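Notebook entry, structure prediction.
Reason for the run: the old model in the group folder had no record of what sequence produced it. Starting over properly, with the input documented here first.
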Amino acid sequence: MFRFPKIDPSKLDLSAFGMSQFDPHAFGSATAKGRGTGPGTGRRTGAADRTARMQDAMARFRRGQEAAVAQWTEARRGMADRPGTAGHAEQTLDMEAPTAAGGAWTAPDQGGGSRPGTAPDLSAMLRALRERLPNAGPSARRPAAEVPPGARFEDRVFTEAAGSRGYKVYVPSGYRGQALPVIVMLHGCTQNPDDFAAGTRMNALAEEQTFLVAYPEQPPSANLQRCWNWYAAGDQVREGGEPALIAGIARSVVAEFSADPGRVYAAGLSAGGAAAAILAATYPDLFAAVGIHSGLACGAARDMPTAFAAMQGQGSAPGPNRQAVPTIVFHGDGDRTVHPVNGDRVAAQAVPAPGLDETVSRGTSPGGMAYTRTVRSDATGRPVLEQWVLHGAGHAWSGGSPDGSYTDPRGPDASGEMVRFFLAQEGASADRD
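New structure, fully documented this time:
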């Protein structure tokens, strides 16, 4: 559930994916054929000029990819040199993929393998995905779930100066034009709206409680593994980059369905959780609350090397947000993809003020997962910060459905708890203003 660096396509073994090998040298031979040796052939034809320009573009492309791989390799080397990280790079899939169609994602064997702080390994991840999910590559889309009579789950496209993103919107059957809440759901790496909707069961909750759900989609053109670019400085600011696109999608849904602009929320998993944290920091006037599952705080990284460090729990913790937004956090203390300390850092960044009432409770989910829940409430008793530490959980949506990827059905129902927390904030945005 993390972003990989871009790589040189000429060095990929594409045969396992049913694709022919990429050969950039073919452009060179095409250019040679376009050049003659007789009189008058010193002047290039239009086709030869185009081929030459393509060669130049491909050369620049390969240099860029080589630089990215070098940066990634250097980051990996730096992580391996740090105490406690060497020798644990092989196990990179935090949750074990299903071995058969319709199977559940399961927690790894806790008796061995790596521990929190393990550096992700590109080749091992690709190999594991190819072996276990041959038909579920980054571009694969799960069939959309059945929609109840009277409800809709439709595709949209939002475009503005920062770019364009597709998204899906769920409209419950109980919608009659009333001003409903909106929850923006941000998927993790390799996921898409249909997969994330299936895994979180958020559409079922929207049908039961009558609210709208929007699922922005990160395309491979923006990130090879469909991750939101949470670590890029240009995607951590207001009115620019991905935050502006996601905020624009939220506003579009509000406008199209006459939704309640004071009850707009965002939630996400992993890279999507980090993106939700960025929305809280950059658009506190739009989002009345956020939910961050297995994510990172806004500003945890500014580039690829610091992203790897942050994912391993290293580096310094970002400071608090200038304007607090009510936040609910879920993070497994066995997460080997995004170190559990990041859940603490997300909560620390979201603390609205000192002197809040704090309640700590412990329990076990119906599926047998132990958890610790810490709730901080304001003077009126309204919860403004809630943190769930999932004991033994890995990098997956707690209480999710095996119909989606990266879910752990054993855990507490993260979707239901987030919805409860969000709807408890009604009127809070007016109080903040």
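Summary: Residues 90 and 124 are 7 Å apart (CA to CA).
The old model has been moved to the deprecated folder.
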